[in-house]
UniProtKB/TrEMBL annotation:
Protein name: Diaminopimelate decarboxylase
Domain of life: Bacteria
Residues of the full protein shown: 476 to 878 of 878
A GO molecular-function descriptor: ATP binding
ATP-binding listed as a keyword: yes
Modified residues (N6-(pyridoxal phosphate)lysine): 59
Family: Belongs to the Orn/Lys/Arg decarboxylase class-II family.
Residues annotated as the enzyme's active site: 337 (proton donor)
One biological process term in Gene Ontology: threonine biosynthetic process
Length: 403
């Protein structure tokens, strides 16, 4: 009998290699998003049967075709700015307002006004808006974000709870909030907490729900919705263990059984899009200096800032020589004038030459959305690869402008 191969499935880009090479030829540097992988992640999340509504956090990836997949699947959208609200509305003018969740942070009054105008669920994370702009909130329904006191995540910059974080209201202010709300006829219909991003501990979301349920039961009798945030992590390296969704569901189910009156909401970004995206960049020059070897590519931190900002790990392969044995250890660097412009340190690659296409994996979340024009280098464009498409993928209109 054939020996059972390692159970680790190869990432999608192994199967679509020739299409990717053709794309790179015409369009690199570019992000490529695989529709099949987006759908697979969506399927996986749907197995969380205790979750009543999912709002996709479009800050992670706001490409129109990506949003269309989630729109068709019936997801809502979590927006953090007026710009994100307008983006969604322009793409889906007929979207039911209850599929919009507006969760801004230190936003000006106008943006809350816009959120209400659109009929979105609006989330407060400070008492300031109620004290400073009471007329805006009179007789409204809102959600309120609380700080559970302890954050989590892949880096300290993305832990969004606890004394060091600017997010959420302290539970000690619940009573004051209740008084302000009563005075304004404001109904608090939901509570929210988001502890951070890139979390692999399956009990996280049930713990958040419990924290919010206790607050609701003590202070806010009108609460129906508990939004337990996003933050669902993905493995950085191929084959590393990911988030155990069955365990997540088991914890949530236990919570739901004990607290049946609440609807549970989730607002994932990364989990849905990270693996679906890769960044393709051609090697411009190679170099050896002081015992180190460098492979320079045509784009760097201006397209993908995560390694520079968080020390994030992204797997890098030489797509042109995917099956060749690794023979060298290189730093993969971009063309930007900063020492931090490194996409990967000490990577094992095959003999790599000018013109080779390097693939930077797990780049579908917080890649293109965080890019910049630093050094006046246009960041990588974005290409959506539909299920079953051929290599003849043309630029999308918004990309065509920059071609
Ligand atoms: N909800 C709220 C209120 C959030 O602040 C965030 C992310 C999410 C949901 C979605 O989190 P996710 O499921 O994607 O982890 N730029 C960083 C991540 C920043 C996350 C910001 N907030 C990175 O590249 O890792």
């Amino acid at each position: 009998a054939p020996r059972a191969e390692a159970a680790v499935a190869r990432p999608w880009w192994h199967h679509r290699r020739s299409e990717l090479l053709a794309l790179a030829e015409a369009q690199a540097p570019c992000y490529v998003y695989d529709e099949g992988t987006l759908r697979g992640q969506l399927e996986a999340l749907r197995r969380l049967s205790s979750v009543d509504r999912i709002f996709y956090a479009l800050k992670a990836n706001d490409h129109p075709d990506v949003l269309r997949v989630f729109h068709e699947a019936g997801l809502g959208f979590e927006c953090v700015s007026a710009g994100e609200l307008e983006h969604v509305r322009t793409l889906f003018p007929e979207l039911a307002p209850e599929r919009l969740l507006f969760t801004p942070n230190f936003a000006p009054a106008d943006e809350y006004r816009r959120g209400f105008e659109l009929g979105a669920f609006v989330t407060l994370d400070n008492l300031h808006p109620l004290e400073a702009w009471p007329e805006l909130f009179r007789n409204r329904n809102v959600l309120v974000r609380f700080d559970p006191g302890r954050g989590d995540g892949h880096h300290r910059y993305v832990r969004t709870a606890g004394a060091q974080s600017k997010f959420g209201i302290a539970p000690a202010q619940a009573k004051r909030l209740r008084e302000l709300a009563d005075r304004l006829g404001l109904r608090i219909v939901g509570l929210h907490a988001h502890v951070g991003s890139g979390i692999l501990l399956p009990e996280t979301w049930a713990e958040t729900a419990l924290f919010l349920a206790e607050l609701a039961e003590t202070y806010f009798p009108d609460v129906r919705y508990l939004d337990v945030g996003g933050g669902l992590g993905v493995p950085e390296r191929t084959g590393a263990p990911g988030l155990d969704l069955e365990a997540v569901e088991a914890h949530l189910h236990r919570f739901k059984t004990a607290h049946p009156r609440f609807e549970l909401w989730l607002e994932p970004g990364r989990f849905l899009v990270a693996e679906a995206g890769v960044l393709l960049a051609r090697v411009t020059q190679v170099k050896e200096k002081g015992g180190a070897r460098y492979a320079g590519v045509e784009t760097g931190m201006n397209s993908l800032i995560r390694p520079a900002l968080y020390g994030a790990y992204h797997e890098i392969v030489n797509l042109t020589r995917l099956d060749a044995p690794a023979t060298q250890t290189v730093d993969v660097v971009g063309p930007i004038c900063e020492t931090g412009d490194v996409l990967g340190h000490g990577r094992r690659l095959p003999d790599t030459r000018e013109g080779d296409v390097l693939l930077i994996a797990q780049a579908g979340a917080y890649g293109a959305v965080m890019s910049s024009h630093y050094n006046r280098r246009p960041p990588a464009r974005e290409v959506f690869l539909p299920v079953g498409a051929s290599a003849a993928v043309s630029p999308t209109p918004e990309n065509a402008a920059s071609v």
